[in-house]
Design brief:
The chain has about 625 residues and is α+β, with helices and mostly antiparallel strands. The chain contains 16 helices and 17 strands. A hairpin with a 5-residue loop joins strand 4 and strand 5.
Length: about 625
């Protein structure tokens, strides 16, 4: 409800504005709203496109990186399977096992050196197959390790690493196991991180004879992660199915477990993306999971970095929008004042006309709507001037008519005073009948000579027709009987003056049946919710259907059909029509009189007037 009231107030204010302001406001709305909408939609679509492209590119890059990492780990798995096919490695491991079993106390350094050179030669062969940041360790059953220091970076805590690897491979049966990133100290006294593939070495009799571990430094994936972070301006993370971190861009989470982190828990499925706020900064997380290793690569991109280019587009769009609005404002001001200038000129001319100067003339220079309005304005001024002259002439004639009417009123008053003198003379001569007739005629005359538009009560109207019938009974003794049936509450009902007497007169002069000794006239009234009905009924000669139809046509003012004879009720038609027109003019078209009649039965005239609550003042 309040919003409707506010809208009405705004609309009222807009309606009361000057025309140039309305045009200016409309121009601005027509320009500002589309530009703002287009700018907002363009910015939104561009931002959405950037997001979709970033997700698509990052997902593809992550997938490619995972494929390369899977290939690298597959190579490590194949390297770990080489001892199963190299008899030299297996024979040297068997010899190493026997040596440490038989010579636990008396060491044979020559035999040990021969075994060591044989295994390490095989490791060098393996290193030549897979070049890069990879180290290969081979252990016998007693944990004695053999490795090549060719690439450097060998673990200093090899025995501890062996115990860890052997524990995880204890229940395996020769398949390769992938172990997440571990932290270690190298022989170069530096801290390094590597992930490892371990596998038991089994002889032809399916007995365990040793263990091989293929170590890969995380530098093998660092270059790809660095390239991805440079493009996305984000940070990347690789973790296994247990939440152990394989690699992270900041190298703060290496070899730790982050399974309780929200972003790890939300990274369900093979791939996807989601938004999450971390440390008060909103990030877009994109992840892909390897189906082979179950490792997940995830990149985190700050939204502000993601929308950096879109912010530039947004600022440029708003600058262009405001610049366009400014130019449009200047153009709108020019056009609004140019379009309304003729209207302002016409308003000034109208004010002069309002002050009484009808000599003004609007100069029409164009044929548009304003030009047509100017032509109509000029014609209107000429017409108004003519009408004023006509009205002036009519008022002059009206004053003359009122003067004549005032003079003519002397005659009815003279007649009334004369009748009163005659009545007094009749009473002095004891002629009571003449005196009564003169008294009644005086009352009728007094009632009739006042203003016809004067309001009277229904009781006064009934008294008037009662005097009228009483006077006629002096002329035609006991020929007419008037019965009045009106509720007491309706006697004070106000109506127009002299609306009943013409109807009674019409009834007596045109409805009297000479075959009946007396005519009975009944006057009644009743009130409904919306109207007051007054009925005057007689038992006269009545009318047939054709005569009744012609009378009704005459009452409503319709011209008679050709060849129709109105002589029998010409006078009555005029009287009833005048009563009907007075009622309709005063109360409205829904009110008036209707006539119903039946030959030999009589006639009924009904007046419909407004109920007391709906009377016009």
């Amino acid at each position: 409800m309040k919003s409707v009231i506010k809208f009405d107030r705004l609309w009222t204010k807009f309606s009361d504005m000057r025309m140039e302001r309305k045009l200016l406001l409309v121009f601005l709305l027509l320009i500002t709203l589309p530009l703002t909408f287009i700018g907002a939609v363009s910015y939104r679509n561009y931002a959405q496109s950037i997001e979709e492209n970033t997700i698509a590119y990052s997902t593809t890059t992550l997938g490619n990186m995972l494929d390369n990492l899977d290939d690298y780990i597959d190579d490590m798995n194949r390297i770990s399977s080489i001892p199963a096919y190299q008899e030299d490695i297996k024979s040297n491991l068997v010899a190493s096992n026997k040596y440490h079993e038989q010579h636990a106390e008396n060491e044979n350094f020559d035999l040990l050196l021969t075994i060591q050179r044989g295994i390490e030669g095989n490791i060098s062969f393996i290193d030549n197959i897979k070049r890069g940041a990879t180290s290969v360790y081979i252990f016998d059953q007693y944990g004695n390790g053999y490795y090549s220091a060719k690439s450097g970076g060998i673990r200093m805590n090899v025995k501890d690493s062996y115990q860890n690897w052997m524990t995880k491979a204890a229940h395996s049966s020769g398949e390769a196991l992938l172990i997440s990133t571990q932290k270690y100290t190298s022989t170069l006294k530096s801290t390094r991180y590597a992930f490892t593939v371990v596998r038991k070495i089994i002889d032809n009799s399916l007995h365990d004879i040793g263990l091989i571990a293929v170590d890969a430094n995380i530098s093998v994936i660092e270059d790809q992660i660095t390239k991805l972070d440079k493009v996305t301006r984000g940070k990347s993370l690789i973790f296994d199915s247990q939440g152990n971190v394989i690699y992270d861009s900041d190298k703060q989470l290496l070899a730790t477990n982050i399974s309780d982190r929200p972003m790890v828990q939300r990274a369900a499925g093979e791939e996807g993306s989601f938004y999450m706020t971390e440390d008060g900064v909103q990030h877009l997380y994109i992840y892909t999971k390897s189906p082979n290793t179950q490792w997940t690569v995830m990149t985190s991109i700050p939204v502000k970095e993601l929308t950096r280019n879109t912010a530039v587009i947004r600022n440029v769009t708003w600058i262009l929008t405001f610049l366009t609005i400014g130019i449009a404002l200047l153009i709108s001001i020019f056009f609004s004042f140019a379009l309304t200038k003729p209207l302002r000129k016409m308003m000034r001319l109208m004010k002069r006309v309002q002050e009484g100067d009808f000599s003004v003339q609007f100069q029409v220079k164009r044929r548009d709507e304003i030009g047509q309005l100017g032509n109509q304005f000029n014609r209107m001024i000429v017409r108004i001037d003519d009408l004023i002259q006509d009205i002036y002439g009519m008022e002059t004639k009206k004053k003359e008519a009122e003067l004549h009417a005032l003079q003519s009123q002397i005659n009815p008053h003279f007649m009334y005073n004369t009748l009163e003198s005659i009545r007094m003379a009749a009473e002095l001569n004891d002629d009571t009948i003449a005196a009564d007739m003169l008294a009644i005629l005086g009352k009728l005359l007094r009632y009739s000579i006042s203003d016809l538009n004067e309001k009277v009560t229904l009781g006064s109207e009934f008294n008037h027709i009662r005097y009228y019938v009483e006077l006629l009974n002096y002329r035609y003794p006991d020929r007419f009987e008037l019965t009045i049936d009106v509720p007491e509450s309706l006697e004070s009902y106000e109506l127009l003056k002299l609306v009943l007497q013409p109807i009674v007169e019409n009834t007596i002069y045109h409805g009297m049946d000479d075959n009946k000794p007396r005519m009975v006239i009944t006057a009644s009234a009743r009130e409904t919710e919306h109207a007051v009905f007054i009925r005057l009924t007689d038992d006269g000669i009545g009318m047939d259907e054709d005569t009744l139809d012609r009378l009704q046509q005459s009452i409503i003012g319709v011209n008679a059909r050709e060849g129709t004879n109105y002589a029998p009720f010409k006078r009555s038609g005029v009287g009833l029509r005048n009563v009907n027109e007075r009622i309709r003019l005063h109360y409205g078209a829904n009110f008036g009189l209707t006539v119903a009649s039946e030959p030999g039965v009589g006639t009924q005239v009904t007046l419909k007037l407004p109920a007391r609550g709906g009377q016009n003042e």
